[in-house]
Amino acid sequence: MTTSTRPVVLANPNTLSDRAAMGLPDTFVARAPQEALAAHRDLLGAEPAALVALAEDPAEPFARRYAAGTVLGLVGDPRVRPEDPPMADIPAARARLGLDPAEAGPVTARWRHAGVEEEWIAKECPRYEVDLPAFRIALHPVTNAEYRLFLEDTGSTWLPTSWRFGVYPELLANHPVWTVPAEAADAYAAWLAARTGRAFRLPTEAEWEYAASGGDGREFPWGDAFVPGNANTVEEGPLTTTPIGVHPAGRSPFGVHDLAGNVEEYVADDYAPYPGGESVADDLAVTRGTYRVARGGSFTRFGDLARCARRHGWYEREIYAMGFRLAETP
């Protein structure tokens, strides 16, 4: 994959075309090799377990991890278990979440090149404490293969807009599903809970942030400094979704994959100010009114949205790549 220089976007991205909001020119930009498997033909005969180990090995270069994940999507990825998704156990904790108001200005300044406005960051303020009972959270976002089973079993018409003409993208079976409405994410969790007898649901906003940060105030799941290669964001990513788990250096303190980048993830909560905070009427509030919070950033957006504390939501544009992951009450 070719490393790019960081593009400069000075305007609010919601006032720009999709490509301009991504910092891309109107000409073609290549971020991935034309034939992703050509240099990795040896992987075509590898066992799935070996491919998983390779895809999740941070010592391997991205191109080889991506190739391993691509082969897994073709032959069957053992991490994709629709009725028994791999989960991380998160112990009960008193978590300190959110952002100190004094940091809103500096955070905005660090991401000014991405068009970030301070009112967006102000939604993260103030810091607050919350008691979280033990819970479980999926190691990966829900994939296309899993979502297909939901559609087939329920007859739902919530077809992802990323499935062109509603056709299942079988070559992307182990990629996160996007873009679906929050209601579809809720319905998926309820369907799987009924199907399995387990207490599946979407994570609360506090649970999601704690699973991403470990509650120590770090800015990203891996630490305080943004590292483009640790997540599938627009800075250096292939400008499309990637197979689950191929950015292992970006795992959270609890070992959870893809909480930064790849696709944005709905949580269970609608936007509301934190305790002691003020409601922020930003462009999302103006255009959507009440809206479901999403977390984690995506392949279409800059790393500011991959921050653990960043609060976002769906805006009616294709550039908003909305997916979700499951949580479970033990």
From TrEMBL:
It holds the Pfam family FGE-sulfatase. It comes from the Bacteria. InterPro entries: CTDL_fold (IPR016187), Sulfatase_Mod_Factor_Kinase (IPR051043), SUMF_dom (IPR005532), SUMF_sf (IPR042095). Residues 117-327 form the Sulfatase-modifying factor enzyme-like domain. Gene3D superfamilies: paralog of FGE (formylglycine-generating enzyme). Transmembrane segments: none annotated. This is SUMF1/EgtB/PvdO family nonheme iron enzyme. It comes from Streptomyces stramineus.
